[in-house]
Specification:
It contains two helices and six strands, in the order E-E-E-H-E-H-E-E. This is N-acetyltransferase domain-containing protein.
Length: about 120
């Protein structure tokens, strides 16, 4: 299977990009990837991101055979924490400082999902 560095799902409304969901750090031998996402403020708290991530997980499982997914979430981002929990992610740990890709992230929680469709 061809290795991919990243998979991206774009979320559009009336032909405008309002958000994205990304799978990166994809490791096919471990069947794993990190997820990240963002959504325009005007579209938050409407269930859009929950559906987008759920659909993306199904796609990554069925087309890329990935089943282990990770999130790194700032401890202050309560909406994102609730979203992760709603989607079935489990809290795995905490770091006061974490280097992820080229960024240093302070006060992060680590979440994991063993995806089962």
């Amino acid at each position: 299977m061809k290795e991919h560095l990243m998979e991206v799902q774009v979320i559009c409304y009336q032909k405008q990009v309002i958000g994205i969901v990304e799978a990166h750090e994809i490791n096919y031998s471990l069947r794993s990837a990190y997820l990240s996402y963002w959504l325009d403020r005007n579209f938050q708290q409407k269930g859009i991101m929950s559906k987008a991530i759920s659909d993306f997980l199904t796609y990554l499982y069925s087309s890329r055979s990935l089943k282990h997914f990770f999130l790194v979430i700032n401890c202050q981002n309560t909406r994102s924490i609730r979203l992760a929990q709603k989607l079935g992610f489990h809290l795995e740990g905490y770091a006061s400082e974490f280097q992820f890709e080229a960024q240093f992230l302070p006060d992060c929680y680590f979440f994991h999902l063993n995806y089962q469709p």
